[in-house]
Amino acid sequence: MSSAGQMKTHATKVRLRPTARDGKWEHTTSTAPDKETSVRTPHVAGNLRHQGALRNTSNPAADVPVTIIKPTVGWGRLKLNELWEFRELVFFFIWRDIKVRYKQTVLGAAWAILQPLLTMIVFSIFFGRLGRIPSDGVPYPLFALGGLVPWLFFMNGLSHGANSLIENERLIKKVFFPRMVAPISSVLSGLVDLAVAFCLIVVAMIYYEVAPPPQVILVPAFILLEVVAVTGVALWLSALNVQYRDVRYIVPFLGYLWLFTSPIAYPTSLLSANWQLVYAINPMVGVVEGMRWALLGAGNPPVGIFVVSSLVAVGMLVSGAFFFRRVERNFADVA
Amino acid sequence: MSGYAISVSDLSKKYQIRGPKTAHAYSTLRDTISNGVKAPFRRIRQIVRGERVSASQNSESFWALDGVTFDIRPGEIIGLVGRNGAGKSTLLKILSRIVEPTRGQAEIHGRIGSLLEIGTGFHPELTGRENIYLYGALLGMRHREIERKYDEIVAFAEIERFLDTPVKHYSSGMYMRLAFAVAAHLETEILFVDEVLAVGDGRFQRKCMAKMEDVGHQGRTVIFVSHNMAAVTRLCPRAILLEKGRIRDDGPAHEVVGRYLSSGLACGAVRTWDDPARAPGGDVARLRAVRVETIDGAIAETFDMAEPICIAMEFDVIKGGEILLPHFHLMTSDGIHAFTSIDIDPNWRRRPRPPGRYISRMTIPGNMLSEGTMFVEAALITIEPLTTQFHVTEVVAFHVTESYRVECARGDWEGEMGGVVRPMLPWTTQYRPLNAGVNEPISSTTPVSGSRTFA
Asked: What pTM, to 2 d.p., does this model score?
């Protein structure tokens, strides 16, 4: 234990070997100039290292990053550059989520088809057949599918995103990474399911002989709007969820409310033009209306709705990001 | 700007403890009602502002880290020592950017690699190969970097055959080996390591130790937290001793560790209280010393697994006539309660003790504990009424290692065993040739043949 002091007196190479019996270090001197196995005494070695290191600092490498750690005051910055640096981790988290989901479930990717398919059948029977709800001139099953596919992506992103920090609790306590990576990758991992579910829409369009209109090229814009909206909600909910586990109970309830206040089972055209703009404060209105218009040619171009929904979605994303940053500093202490 | 890799000034961290102590001290009914009415609004306001809302506003606080200031030059290797709760982990968490300090500042020059708990981030459903990439990315390695190091990592972990097996099927040793292998190949200028060497079997621990020495020779800056003082003096030229969130000592490692061990703060093999007035206990009894000894009574800190370990507590009985139950709790470094043993010496059982000096000695037979560090809690209770006279946590500690030189529970198996205990139990094997008649008796071997037992 205290042998370091004595070791300094050894002029020749000193080899240290732990002996199990008493925990002390055994000294064996070797005359062979074996650089690999020789270990300098800790104290002397330390001094040598310092000299080497000081040489280093006289010629500082330009790419050495400097990290300043201090308490954040007020709202803080978004630090998007940090998030960009960890973009590979976002990819790995998405990849992990998808792999694990498909490994653990029996039906795997089939779920992405079955969920919208079965819901579409139920909706078609009750809302389409029995409720006789109008469907903007497209067959009701196709109309429902056009709303359900984006809706399921939204709902999955909302619930996975809200739980993302809780599920990664151990990581948050032990590993540093921009915490936003967790909700963002939870939301984005749903894009794979969305892509699979889109195949269902394509099949349904072929079945009902509905040709895609020219504005189909705008579909990615509406998907982007949806990603923005759901990420904003996920940032808010996940950050709140760390401190207030009430969120866990709020999420399914929120899902119900949001489903019925979004034009999934019914068209927005039931409302008057002015009320439609108010209705569009729910960003899912813009997403679903836009998607149906771009994909199925249903209704008129929802320009006003799209503008209102986009503004709200961007607002939620920005406010969510700032709120997340604000409470993020407590996550490891509270989680 | 300075020539420092890490420069820390006045770093402090306050934690809130919710305590019922102050909750009802000076509150009136009026306050309670008005608080009850105002509370929801105040909470919503706090939520929106992002402040932390605690269930009780009356919470105590304590400083886990209190005005810590030090500088580390590039290439220095620092051992951070101190008792559990001294603030070592909090300091590493702040420097790793996992938690924010309450006060003060730290400046770090270089990429930071942080191994606070090895293997966190592994996903049990993913294979070894997939986890290497995932864990590497978590630690901040670039995809290219992992790819370049991949073969080296696999070779170091010695798990070539199990690369495509989900890690949930790994033994804890394989899991740890893989995790350490990825972590050890991090190429950051700054590295924080918390108790990593406490993993795996003796052989792998030595391999980790060698790897850590390598890291030291590469001129990287390392802060290394360990309870193993031998490892600290071996790896680190300089050590910092933390106590109750403050720096108590800073200097050459062997000096700091030496002073630490003799100060009574360290959890070593011996702990004594020379001043009876300040010894743990009260009017009935006071603890005077706790020692870890070999079977021959020599103080020892490290034991071979096959060796018996004796733990003795020396205490004074001041007020006679009580029936005493001296006992030890043994805890692993992970905080797992291994076992509790109570003094059942028939001579003093159920017998009131006259005043005087007593030494209660417990012997743990060889081949009982698994390898690792064990922390001892010494306690004494009196019955009727049941009263704790003293209970000292982390009073002494000892290490159990494996030399592989003598017969032990592992037999011919060389890999990881795991577990808190590793008893050598008698086994028998029954055998009947396949073509033997059903009625023929199955022969049995005697358990003692071919194996030696240890006293």
From this structure: 0.69
